[in-house]
Amino acid sequence: MTRKQRRLYFVVLGVLAVGAAAALVLTALRQDIVFFFSPSEILEAKVPTEGRRIRLGGLVEQGSVVKDGAIVRFRVTDGAHTLPVVYSGLLPDLFREGQGVVTEGKMGPDGEFQAAEVLAKHDENYMPKEVAESLKKTGHWQGESQPAK
Amino acid sequence: MHRFANPARFMRIATLVLPWAMGVAILTLGAGLWFGLAGSPADYQQGESVRIMYVHVPAAWMGMFCYTAMAVCSAMALIWKHPLADLLARATAPVGAAFTFVCLVTGALWGKPMWGTWWVWDARLTSMLILLFLYLGYMALADAFDDPQRGQKAAAILSLVGVVNVPIIKWSVDWWNTLHQPASVVKMGGPAIDSSMMIPLMLMAVGFHAFWVVVLILRTRAEIAAAKVRTLRMAQVHAAGQAEQA
């Protein structure tokens, strides 16, 4: 084996070893890397919620937003489970029913999630309004939410 | 590949490529900016602020592309000791760092109106910040030794260790849930961007790559000139020392 070949194998093995180490670390830290938990994960007690500040993410359930002065109540769903959320403060522009949302706060004693912060999460689809409307008309709509009125 | 490792031959080819790359960069960036700012529709959800995408997304691609290029050059420099590979890696680093910085800044400016926050520590944003630190570390390490060759070798190893971050950035939005949305262009089942918005995005992406080629050639040319100056100066000092002895 020439010196060049030896260096080549050394570099390839080194990169593979670093990659494997990174994969192991990231797998072990999975619970800490995820940005939010779904309503199912919280309700099925897969994550400790007692007195801890956590993030809850999902879709704002259609027809669930109730505004009472500065206080907003809505329900976050992942299709399987739904959690009620109460929040007082400014909502981001993209906050809409049927739209993705990530809230940070604590589980209240009554099973209501008390959010201190609400962030909007949008999907990866980009298109002009006209295209979104014609997709809806023809029934080919696959986005998660209604277009802006 | 080894044919191009000769700096003189590389510079001959680079001199031919340079005006073309400049032309492509000016044309595509001009057209891309026009299409991006005026000649494309607003988004159905995000309205006009979607136009940040035409700078943000290509800048993010360039951040990852430049790092990969830098790591490949570093590997070639370590394995085959090509003098040119080190120069190219060195020349790419600040370009990639600048694009990564642009990506982070435009991302923050886009995140505030859309998500409601400048910054969150989700997997995508954090791994992109680590990319910027890797670039800064590479540049600092390459210059941290009196002997430039030693610095280059240490920096090359750092860049190879850091290359593991590139796939993490790309698939962070699939492996973990994040505030950042999943990929829109390079994904299974084809792009999720309307063709009218794809035009400015692709023009800007081509323009950024052409810009990278231009800067790479200029910087490599400067590095080769600097190496020549160093050699001449050493020869002068050497000659002066010999004259003194005589």
Automatic annotation (TrEMBL), chain A:
Keyword list (alphabetical) reads: Cell membrane, Cytochrome c-type biogenesis, Heme, Iron, Membrane, Metal-binding, Signal-anchor, Transmembrane, Transmembrane helix
Please report the record's description of how this protein sits within the membrane: Single-pass type II membrane protein
* One Gene Ontology cellular component: plasma membrane
Tell me, what's a Pfam family for it?
A: CcmE
> Which residue spans belong to the Cytoplasmic compartment?
1-7
Membrane side Extracellular: residue ranges: 29-149
> Which amino acid positions bind heme, per UniProt?
H122, Y126
Name the domain of life.
Bacteria
Q: What is its main location?
A: membrane
Mention one GO molecular function: heme binding
Q: Where is it located?
A: Cell inner membrane; Cell membrane
Function summary: Heme chaperone required for the biogenesis of c-type cytochromes. Transiently binds heme delivered by CcmC and transfers the heme to apo-cytochromes in a process facilitated by CcmF and CcmH.
Protein name according to UniProt: Cytochrome c-type biogenesis protein CcmE
Corresponding gene? ccmE
From TrEMBL, chain B:
Bilayer-crossing regions: 12-37, 57-80, 87-111, 123-142, 154-173, 197-218
Query: Keyword annotations for this protein?
Result: Cell inner membrane, Cell membrane, Cytochrome c-type biogenesis, Membrane, Transmembrane, Transmembrane helix, Transport
Please give one Pfam family short name. Cytochrom_C_asm
Any one GO biological process: cytochrome complex assembly
What GO cellular component entries does it have? plasma membrane
Q: How does it sit in the membrane?
A: Multi-pass membrane protein
Coiled-coil regions listed: none
Q: Which family does it belong to?
A: Belongs to the CcmC/CycZ/HelC family.
> What function does this protein fulfil?
Required for the export of heme to the periplasm for the biogenesis of c-type cytochromes.
Q: What is this protein called?
A: Heme exporter protein C
Organism listed in the record: Magnetospirillum aberrantis SpK
